[in-house]
Amino acid sequence: MDPKSAFIKQFGDLIALLRADPANQAAQESALAAAAAAVARQGLEVEAGVEWSSIPDDLTLKGRLLARGVETVRLAAGAEPQALLRLARALAHDGVPIPSTARVRVEMVSFMWLNPATSVEDGGVAPRTARNRDPQSPDRRRWEERRGAGRLRWDDLERRRTPDRRLSGERRLELINDQRAEIAKLHDGLRRGARHMAWEAMLHSASMLVRLQPRVPVGERRSFGIQVRRDIPARAIEALVDLAERDPTGRDRAADVLRWIGLDAAEVILERLRQSEAIGVRGFYYDVLGGMPEAYPLIRPLLHSHYTHEIRHAAVLAGRLGRPEAVDELLPLLAHRDERVRAAAVGALGELHRGSAAAGLQQALHHRDPKTRAAAADAIAVWRGGALALLLVSTLETERDWDAWQAMVSALGRLGTLDACQALATVALTRRTLLRRRGYTTGQRLAAVTALGLATTEVARTTLERLAREGGGVVRYAADRLLHGGRQRAG
Hints:
This protein has 491 residues and is mainly alpha-helical. The protein is 58% helix and 3% strand. Helix 11 packs across helix 13, helix 21 packs across helix 22 and helix 21 runs parallel beside helix 23. The chain is globular.
């Protein structure tokens, strides 16, 4: 399979899992690693195909690109897995803004929208045909001859008298004026909602304003943002967080608004995290703060807190923010007395794809606590697409804790690379006997075969076919079941 087809398949599976099975983190990590590997050496370009006669399935990459109005996704060689994950999460949702970075460039479809007050259904003017829009058409009518022009001819200075009105921007002025009227209406609703403490109405107006920002002319965006933030007082930020805690259905809109507000919202959410474990809404807090890189200076002091839950929250957020300077702050946490703090620090190092993070993961893989070693195996599986997979291979023979060993084998299976599959095949075919004590038990051999079933790469399937031919007994049976079990995959 060529890299582009592999990326479309694996990235589409990742989006489908995030949309249909968000709790299946193991499969998501495997699909993300495979998608990152497909663009590791060469750039790709994926087009949505907006002129298709039929819309693809909503759980495919093409279907989600069309549903979100994305025209083209251009991926540079070596695109970061974290950037791919952010794009997949945005495509899996229906309202989250689509991110674009230097290595992952997204081009949206340009839509020409009509003001609902002048739509055809309400008795307004229907859009002009392509022939009438062409200034060179011999059938183009003069203004006075047009039927239902919709407004009077404008003769003031704003009218631009150039040969090509389209290129000069005259027609865009109509859209800008309509947009300004809509923005003024939303601003009024925002202020009225804050004044009367109608928080749901205020959230609706604020989310609509946030979505309108990309359409605001560049020269006016700064003043637009200042005015919107000024209309959301401190008590309204607290109320928005309370509303999101009570109503899960409105959390996506609240997250967009809170991220757009910035540091004021970050301070409120961090204070909520510091108060308790925040079991019910912790994921929501992480999603909001994880999309605010400017909040790291507020998070960094919590890494040195005296309370373990604050350290864990800060470690997870440091990993989600992808700040390379956080590596030096996380490495000392590998020696923390609390195993949950160590696990959070190891998981964060797995998301920070910088040099010294590799040394920290290697150190955690040989920690005296088996749970920390298991966490290190999971982190190695996502660090730079499995660049440290050979560390897991060399540790399989010496690991004596079953849970940690199982985590290492599962990590190799999720990677699905050539080295990982060869190591799993060696485990599955090396039987422990009285004369060969360095082999593996039947349970370990079956675990290796099961781990191969987690991978969706062609190498993993070829390895399973080999085990179905060369393996004996339960290994051959398990490999055959995985090959012909008819597993259903999302997308």
